[in-house]
Write a structure and sequence with these properties.
By secondary structure, the protein is of the alpha/beta class. Helix content is about 20%, strand content about 25%.
Length: about 210
């Protein structure tokens, strides 16, 4: 059986994150977008050393800002969740940094989305994030129609995001697509913005690997 990777995004509070760090997740995400209710403000959260890769989520941030966060906090992945162009991704890929990092690019999916638009990104980024299309930049807590993933035929792997909840584990363990690496979970596993329900996250991980 395929082993799916799990990213818990939107970590904000140190005490709660200490519990998340013990769950055996693959990636932990920190949002560096000031308009998000999960914007990470307390730098002490980076004093926690989870056995997981650290992902910084950015929305239309400058190249200098991204590199500063990568180097300061030792980020393993830069997730671009805004309107970042192919040219910007190329600049980020070519930029010198003290830390080697992956680049993930998020796209909002709805019935009108044309997956062919991703062709120019596929050899630049390491992975895509397929989230639910909203008027803003994600964070809706809603899921899109997963059958739309049948329209995706590129070789670049992706994480599925957007409104995933514990009840979805039974469906998701039978992969929605052969290129699906795993699942990016956030608001569907929260007690309130930034505070994760670690009991449900643990059950979800067990569920997708059952």
């Amino acid at each position: 059986m395929k082993r799916y990777q799990v990213k818990v995004c939107g970590n904000k509070y140190v005490n709660n994150f200490l519990k998340v760090a013990d769950l055996g997740v693959d990636y932990v995400g920190f949002i560096f977008y000031e308009k998000s209710p999960r914007y990470v403000e307390n730098e002490l959260i980076f004093s926690v050393f989870p056995n997981a890769f650290k992902v910084g989520v950015f929305v239309n941030a400058s190249l200098d800002t991204i590199l500063e966060k990568v180097n300061t906090y030792g980020l393993d992945v830069v997730q671009l969740h805004g309107d970042e162009s192919v040219a910007f991704c190329q600049q980020l890929r070519a930029a010198e940094s003290e830390k080697t990092f992956e680049i993930w690019k998020a796209f909002g999916i709805d019935a009108a989305f044309d997956f062919r638009l991703l062709t120019t990104y596929q050899h630049i980024v390491d992975s895509f994030i397929f989230d639910t299309k909203t008027s803003d930049y994600g964070g809706s807590g809603k899921r899109f129609d997963w059958t739309l993933l049948t329209n995706y035929s590129l070789s670049t792997p992706f994480f599925l995001s957007g409104g995933i909840r514990l009840a979805d584990a039974a469906t998701l363990k039978n992969s929605p697509h052969p290129r699906c690496l795993g699942f990016d979970i956030n608001s569907g596993f929260e007690l309130e913005p930034g505070i994760k329900n670690t009991t449900e996250i643990k059950a979800f991980i067990a569920g997708i690997h059952a």
